[in-house]
Amino acid sequence: MPSAIFDQFHTTLGQTGAASWPVGLVILFLAAAIIATILRRFRVETIPGYLLAGAIVGPHGLRLIADRSATEQIASLATILLMFGIGLQLDVSALRKGFASVVGLGIGSTLAFVAVAWGVMFVPGGGSAPSTLLIAMALSISSTAVLVPILMARREARATHGRVSLSVSIVQDLMSVAMMALIPPLATWAGVPMLGVVGRIDDAGELPTVLDLFARAGVGIGGVTLMIVLARLFLPRVLMIVTRLGSGELLLVVSAALALGAAWLTGWLGFTPEMGAFLAGFMLASTPFRYQLSGQIGPVRDILVALFFTLVGTQVDIAAVVQYWWVVLLAVPALMIGKVVLVGVSGWLLGIPAAPSFLTGVYVANGSEFSLVLLGAGLAAGVLSEVQAALAVAVVFFTLIICPLLAGPSHRLVPMLAVVRSPRWIKASPFAPGAGLDPDTRGPCHVVIAGFGPVGRAIADELSTASIPFTVIELNPRTVQRQTGLGRRIVYGDVTNPEVLESAGARAADAIIITVPDDEVSLQACRAARALAPRALIAVRSGFVSSKIRALQHGADVVTVEEFAAADAMRREVMEAIVQRFGKGEGPPAANGEEKAGQTPNA
């Protein structure tokens, strides 16, 4: 009876034209909002909720979205812009501390997992070599979107395992670009025609020779390399011209155009469009404008994340998962245990202490949004069957649910690992206590200065004299460029944007000083800063007494009123001028030319 009811409901939707893409989006967003909200009450992350929502309303569930073709183009656009946003947030500077160890850990453990997983899956009857290799590569990547909230919620972003796990995740994100570039060759290996330059089938319908394949791959790689070089040379200058026009919206539009253009170019070269969008974001991440762009694209990115994962969920064949339940039941713990062991042992062999290595393995023991992108691209390219893609997505789904639940219990095993010593060939670990790479060894405090006008510069000079580190947020591109050249830590962006504040380190700052000469902007920045840093000292510049009261209500600790400051400064400066000009205890000349008493005019 329920099946008949849903069949009739779906028939009614089709007859009324409600199966078009606008209604499809409404259904997807409603399902995502409802399911994700329910799961959040049980402390489950939103991404698994989106996947489950898509599976429920998709063609293998209630069939409210029976035909994905209506939303296919929107899904492609969402994926491209999502990859652009991920590339934009990629902070390669996090790899500088213990560079060799974390890069070696990220690359070594990921390749080891791919080799082991491919060897396990590529057995008689287990699938073809190209398909199992693609699944192994997809499952080797861990989720940055799930890792960062865990570290922030547990205040472990500055701990050794927090830094190492985040660095490993960044390395894997970079490796995923190479994995996406391998999809066309894998499709050629599997005998599937591809439309790009790499692995293109000729007019006679025959597969290209090995020499032709390498030649076309060289053309594609050369084109991407040229794109990256040109972006490094001209992109900062183009964005500087745009920002000088004073339009934040124009900066966002130009960046979106660059992302779509890069996606088209890499697609034309034979790679995936997602790879081009990611590279565009990654190139922008090296410019001073990355924080402002990240803040502007934040709400859009959140919507695209919901849409992307919900659409991926519609690909999950619930019947296939039920039929092959034993595969999922075995694959999920095998994936997580394999990552914990490989990452933990690799980290220990590279000189990272045993406890942080183990915790890093636990924190990256899940699948990733990149896993879903790779699986989706492999399905679209014909490398994966629908059943293979559905089972792999199901495995990623369960790991995204389970991994955050293991963060707390895993710390109970840390005391047992404290007795494990580093290998004998490790003379000096870059992550050992006192190695100089612990971020907790900073100065007495850290300050964020919002606004670098005369007031902000005066405070910066005082902090420099006292050897107190600080970060500046400024919306004038010339000031940002000039201060960056002087070696100061300065972020381009709007102080009212929470992501810009967080990028400047406001969440971990001891003091946040807002010197913007606009009361409304100062109040918005104060509210955003207090939400990010509940314990930080927040000082605000205010024009009037009434604004001071509002600033205190929004969480400010210190409010300097310009009226009072101007009165005090003017009183002091006027009195100093009077004393210097007329002498102490003497008054000004008499008015109207009258002479002082006791004096006679000169002859």
Descriptive overview:
The N terminus and C terminus are likely disordered. Helix 3 runs antiparallel to helix 18 and helix 10 crosses helix 12. Helix 25 links the parallel strand 5 and strand 6. It is globular and about 100 Å long. The chain has 603 residues and is mainly alpha-helical. It has a 6-stranded parallel sheet, with helices on both faces. The protein folds into 2 domains: 416 residues, Up-down Bundle (Na+/H+ antiporter like fold); 143 residues, Rossmann fold. The N and C termini lie far apart (123 Å).
Nutshell version of this structure?
By secondary structure, the protein is mainly alpha-helical.
Features of the shown structure:
6-stranded parallel beta sheet, disordered N terminus, Rossmann fold, 603 residues, 6 strands, mainly alpha, globular, Na+/H+ antiporter like fold, 26 helices
Say what the CATH topology of the largest domain is: Na+/H+ antiporter like fold
Total strand segments:
6
Strand proportion, as a percent range, falls in: under 5%
| Highest-level CATH class of the largest domain | Mainly Alpha
Average pLDDT metric: 77
Please state how the strands of the largest beta sheet are arranged side by side: 3-2-1-4-5-6
- Shape label: globular
Which stretches are poorly predicted, pLDDT < 50 over at least 5 residues? 1-6, 11-19, 195-208, 433-443, 593-603
Second rung of CATH, namely the architecture of the largest domain: Up-down Bundle
What helical percentage do the residues reach? 55-70%
Number of domains: 2
Described by its quaternary structure, the protein is single chain
Structural category:
mainly alpha
Radius of gyration: 30 Å
Separation of termini? 123 Å
Q: Please, how many helices?
A: 26
Biggest sheet statistics = 6 strands, parallel
